[in-house]
Amino acid sequence: MALVALLSNPNSTGNRSLLPAVRSYCAKNPDIFHYEVEEIGQIAKALEMIARVKPKVLVINGGDGTVQSALTELYHGGHFDGTPPPVAVLPNGKTNLIALDLGAEGNPLEALARIIEVAKGDLSKHIVVRELIALSDGSEGARPVLGMFLGGAGLAETILYCRHKIYPLGLPNGLSHFLTAIAVMFSTIVSVKASFLPERSKPVSISFIRNGELHGTFSVLIVTTLEKLLLGGQAGNTKQRGLMKFLAVDQKPIAMLKMIAASLRGKLGQTTMAGIHFQQGDVIRIDSEQSSVVLDGEVFEAYLGSPIVLRSTPPVPFLKLAA
Fold first, then answer.
1. For FRET with 83, which of 40, 163, 203, 214 sits at 20 to 30 Å CA-CA?
2. Per-residue pLDDT averaged across 298-308, rounded?
3. What's the pTM?
4. How far is CA 71 from CA 47, 48, 74, 296, 303, in A?
């Protein structure tokens, strides 16, 4: 029985420089069972092997796509008898939203060392549960893709703009995100269209199966099961389990400025503001003539007559490090 199983994707951007140090660290530490995959399609086999060593904690070391694929296979694969081990995520991706939500930040190797120390003791006080977002086209029998953070409308275009236009410049992540934010604000406030700026979002219709509908064009659309929405904002009663948190901001300069001001003051989600929409639900449907959403790094498209349907799953255990 291994104390910690570490699942690494050598091809993720962060691991291109980090992985040699990770391999060296694991070789010296008998408490770690380290399994590397050469491609995302090997994650099912990896989890099958990891299940045999019965780890107390499963640690994912890779980018957003690795985390999403591992969560999807962990949920659907049935590789572990009963409840799977709690999941921890190293801060080794571009955004690290899930890792940050679980208290893992800074150097990935230092985070791994903290996880091992926690695993040596009583895990109970470090276990938190999170529902996952199950994304499908709503058809019966389709295997949903699972994740924890979805960006749509203008936010999806922003993520894709950053991925295709800014990241290839080779700049640090923080500077890349700052430049992207400047480009988005400039495009929104002055309503400029240009090839070097993010595309403007298209109209979408959002249906909360038991709580009405929302129609419009949004600069920000977020659905998440993480505790935080954006810049520290929270949506509604975050203590209510089983519901996805939803935030949409109208594609209007004044709404964007209100969101930024509320975020900086730590008030986002605490009061009602015109142009900023908060909601919670266990089933959310996104319709559009053509609109992209990004679930933990993977792009999906909603077309006319082919909606995206989001459902929350039963809770999954995660390991949260002390902040």
1. 40
2. 81
3. 0.77
4. 10, 14, 5, 11, 26
